[in-house]
Amino acid sequence: MFRTFFARKGAAIASVLLAGVTALGALPAGAAPFDGNRTNFADERFATVWSRTDSESVRGGRTWYWGPNAWFDYAEFYRQGENGLRTVQYFDKARMELNNPADRSGASRGVTNGLLVKELVSGRVQLGNDPYDTDQRPAAEVPVAGDPRSANPDAPSYSSFAGVATLDNGYRDPQRLGQRVAATIDRGGNLSARPDLALPETEIVQFNSVTGHNIPSVFWTFLGQKGRVLDGRIINAPVVDWLFAMGLPITDAYWTRARVGGNEVDVLMQLFERRVLTYVPSNPAGYKVEMGNVGQHYFQWRYAHLGTPWNSPEPQLPLLYASNVDTGGKHWELYRYGIGALSADRISFHDQETVAFSWRRSWDPGQLALLTDSRRSNAQFRQIYEYGPVALYGDNVWNAEIRRLSYTDGTQAPPNGPNPGYLVNNTANEYNASYSPDGTKIVFVSDRTGKPELFIATSSFGNPTQLTVSGCVNESPTWSPNGRRIYWASTCDGDYDIYRADVAYDYDSQYGVNARLVNVTNLTNNTTDDRFPRVSPDGRHIAYTSYSAGNADLALINETGDPIGPFFLSPANEEAPTWSADGTMLAYASDATGSYQIYTVGLSLRGPGPSQITHNAGQNRWPLWAQ
User: Fold this and answer.
1) What average pLDDT does range 80-92 have in this prediction?
2) What are the phi and psi torsion angles at 421 (to 5°)?
3) C-beta neighbour count of 153 within 10 angstroms
4) Which residue of 322, 533, 561, 565 pairs with 523 in a disulfide if CB–CB is 3.0 to 4.6 A?
5) What pLDDT, in 10s, does the model give residues 207-228?
6) How many whole angstroms separate alpha carbon 569 and alpha carbon 170?
């Protein structure tokens, strides 16, 4: 029936698809973590700063100052930023930031370069302009130079330098002009000396009186070198403004032994506020002095759960759905579609319903996590559980620890942690939990205050903050790819409509989040129900279920609410769309065959038409693909 209707309505559907898919195929100039386009620049000013030193037109055989390309951008908390957020973009060597989008001053046109090294050594993530406004974490155990820790077990980490670094602690080194560097440091932060490494090029030629640290000739020459740069046109000029690029030195230079490319070598390292310089005498000319991979190191420290996007392919997530086929129709369990030779694989085994709602995505397949709604602990209340880390291997293995995040029925002790998410009323439902794209926050629905409202919490679920106080039903929150907005369905205008709002942060740390919704907009604003919104990977379109024709149909709008039209109309019900990772397909549930089954459809005139992918005697609903 579905295929017949699709063919019969071909002209109408073709016009809808053509209007919508032409736009769907055009990715934005910026990027987002999981839109498949993350090497694009998030802002043209980032591209200008990068191109000045690292574009192929000027770099030649010169070492990288930022790296070959960007690989992650996001809206991170910054107290003075727009809605408490600033746009950042990570490169191998550093992170670019736009604290104030309206600021286009100076040679960098408002782009700043984060104090990443200072944060890695101190463990203090700066949350705003005030240097004492910080989120305290353990100092980074990532090796400063060389291969990752698994292949570089003895190399000093950033934490190794805490005892010899200037970190608002008054530490200073004595002036050593004219001396050569023979001092060494090990992983434990212990200092010693190797006179054989006191090479002529390590002679101290500068002493910074502000922080009290000595700079050897080999690094000072690098900082002051001239070369080809792109500044509107190709010119010969100082390659970098070293204070902008590096910040002030926070340590003296030290030798160490580290594994680089699997080989153990002598490395001279010096830490600055923003960057690290390394000198490896055995390296080829032009690459003896290099910027350390501070951007990679900081990302590993701050987002350990996200893996290594600079050298990993896009995450491929399985399509999940709920089915009652094995429970005699009594409740939902989770199934995974199409792994290896399997057409379906049951992955949850409880005596009450369990339905998947969102992934915590990662470039490390062993760090995937899944948020579910479940009644497995109490049949009266829906609660939020995390399956993770999730690892998929072979044809039929699902390895995951199950962690209960919400506690509202009083049957268990609250979770451990500094701010447990325990609720005292003991009679609430918690569900529709959605991970932010960076995996650090969760938006969810709770009826703890009466009607179902939206709340936000850290990934540890500490101290949830209420976002909506509408007194109507709110459901199905979903994030924009850059973490700045959420979309959801609400009955505040009498029927379900799709809403959009910007999230404004007053505080965001590992211990808690304080946020509110601003610029709340009703995107569909009609007299029929619109439900189950999901945002496309590029953030430009929202797929949802429209009931405007009297039954459930798939529909698309853009991010401002302009309709792309019903994706297709049929006598059957099509519900709860979910996007593929590349944004080219939707999965959904349809009762076209009499019972609900899972279908997929391509969002292109040349793409695959509707295809039924589950065929069983049960009801199959609530698919989850790459949200």
Assistant:
1) 96
2) -85, 55
3) 10
4) 561
5) 999 999 999 999 999 999 999 9
6) 70
Contact 333/348 with Cβ under 8 angstroms? yes
Closest Cα to residue 197, out of 215, 179, 210, 214?
A: 179
Q: Are 123 and 115 in contact (CB under 8 A)?
A: no
Q: How far apart are CA 100 and CA 83, in angstroms?
A: 11
Q: Are 471 and 40 in contact (CB under 8 A)?
A: no
pLDDT for 92-104, tens place per residue?
999 999 998 888 8
Joined together, the tokens standing for residue 487 give: 């979309």
Residue 53 has pLDDT above 90, yes or no: yes
Q: CB atoms < 10 A from the CB of 12, how many?
A: 13
Q: Are 1 and 571 in contact (CB under 8 A)?
A: yes
Neighbours of 595 (CB within 10 A): 15
User: How far apart are the two ends of the chain, measured CA to CA in Å?
Assistant: 29
Domain chopping of the chain, boundaries: 44-302
Task: Identify residue 195 by its one-letter amino acid code.
Answer: P
- Report helix, strand or coil for 212: coil
Sequence length of the chain is 627
Which strands sit side by side in the sheet containing 263-271, from one edge to the other? 191-193, 183-185, 254-260, 263-271, 276-279, 289-291
* 3-state secondary structure at position 536: coil
Structural contact between residues 626 and 361, judged by C-beta atoms closer than 8 angstroms: yes
Q: Give the tokens for residue 523.
A: 């995107």
Three-state secondary structure along 526-537? CCCCEEEEEECC
Single pTM value for the model: 0.91
Q: Which amino acid is at 12?
A: A
Distance CA 551, CA 543 (A): 16
Asked if 63 contacts 53 with a C-beta cutoff of 8 angstroms, the reply is no
Q: What is the pLDDT of residues 265-283, one digit of tens each?
A: 999 999 999 999 999 999 9
Q: Please, what is the average pLDDT of the chain?
A: 87
Q: What is the dihedral of CA 572, 574, 575, 577, to 10 degrees?
A: 180
